[in-house]
Specification:
alpha/beta; 7 strands
Amino acid sequence: MNSMKPGIDQLKISRSLSIIENDTDSARKIIGGLPARDYCVIGVTGSPGAGKSSLTDRLACISVEERTTAVVAIDPSSPFTGGAFLGDRIRMRRATDDPRVFVRSMASRGSVGGLSPSIYNSVEFLGRSGYDRIFVETVGAGQSETDIVNLADIVLLVMAPGLGDDVQTMKAGIMEIGDIFVINKSDLPGADQLASRTRAILELSGKKFPVMRADSIRGSGVQEIQEEIEEVLLSYLSSGRLASKRAKRNLYNNLNSAYQIIKEHYAENDKLEELISYLLENIGR
């Protein structure tokens, strides 16, 4: 059994994340005070009702046996407080009950891509704080979820029969998201057809991505998906694709920080000068 790495104080991390979510200037200082380290971000996205939360729950509990693991569950924002509804965390009972897994619900706050700028900083903070694998489960809002590609090293596109996902797979942009395609709820009628159509579309597109089946409620197929994640990560590392993805993540993280500075301090000239310096120093690194 893997125990939590020495030095990871979950209560302290939780408190720091609360600051990072709400204060961009403080976020940069907190993150900048931590050494850079290697970690992997696994995005889990797909249509609402496809079983993303239960799949993420299972994967995190398998991952933590070998590596320090955190989960960031992006929930819809409350229109009144801007906070998360915490629905995903309720559905992640195994991970939430496992003291080795750090689980955090964060609000989408109405961001177009399903990811608020603070999420990039939060993931970077978790990685630098000692977590080797960080699962990011998105809200699930169709094509607007493409923003996860800019954050994750590898993306699981979760689909399920009976949700119109056979139509979703045909839409432009959707097939560009996934690195691994998961047909969840594989015990339901239509799972075979959905898997076949997905493979056919990938083949027609000239793409060679794995299409896997799972039943995340019962747990079948989840271990195989976890093993595939690690194999794909190794493949991307050796091919240089992982380095390319991380360069993009760093770029978008910097752009999101710049956006927050403009949003919060657009009327202050000294902040605009700080922004220009920040862009010159960081964009494209």
